[in-house]
Design a protein that fits this description.
By secondary structure, this protein is mainly alpha-helical. It has one domain. It contains five helices and two strands, in the order αααβααβ. It has helices spanning 8-29, 31-57, 62-85, 95-120, 125-147; strands at 90-91, 149-150. Strands 1-2 form a two-stranded antiparallel sheet.
């Protein structure tokens, strides 16, 4: 399938690179960062898959398709991070709203990167989307630790190794 869709290999390659980076990060930063990277890779599949379907099959304009795919991936990532990455930690009140806000901050950067790389640099919109997603990964992790999930004991969340 990847050979039949131009540029899809770029998106799939990004998922593999993110997973490999997550594996390296596991060694350096710990299990939580690794899990966040794996969840992020699954979100990348969601956003790129929906963006492709909505743009190339249904015919929506790619920035609209990307926004819809991004929202779906935020829901996917919040759920998976809640049950796996940050298991044992409670989200602050209105955790999903906080996560959506954190991701919204990154989305502005992502959407800007997608449009500039597609319209100005001439990249295929899914390759641009993959680069945009990668550009916001660390920001999402740090902001999620700080503003979305917290330790039940009331201590401040740490960046890096899980307790």
């Amino acid at each position: 399938m990847a050979d039949s869709v131009p540029g899809l290999q770029s998106g799939l390659s990004l998922v593999l690179v993110m997973t490999a980076a997550g594996t390296i990060a596991h060694r350096v930063a710990g299990r939580r960062f690794f899990r966040f990277a794996v969840v992020g890779a699954s979100g990348t599949v969601v956003v790129l898959g929906l963006t492709y379907i909505l743009t190339d099959i249904i015919g929506l304009w790619y920035p609209v398709s990307y926004a819809i795919g991004f929202i779906a991936s935020v829901a996917n990532n919040y759920y998976l991070n809640s049950i796996w990455t940050f298991r044992g930690q409670k989200a602050y009140n209105l955790g999903f709203v906080r996560f959506l806000t954190v991701c919204g901050i990154t989305w502005v950067l992502n959407e800007t990167v997608v449009i500039i790389l597609t319209e100005v640099a001439g990249l295929w919109y899914l390759a641009s989307a993959a680069i945009g997603i990668a550009s916001g990964f660390v920001t999402n992790y740090v902001l999620s630790l700080r503003f979305v999930w917290h330790r039940q004991q009331g201590s401040k969340p740490r960046i890096g190794r899980a307790a």
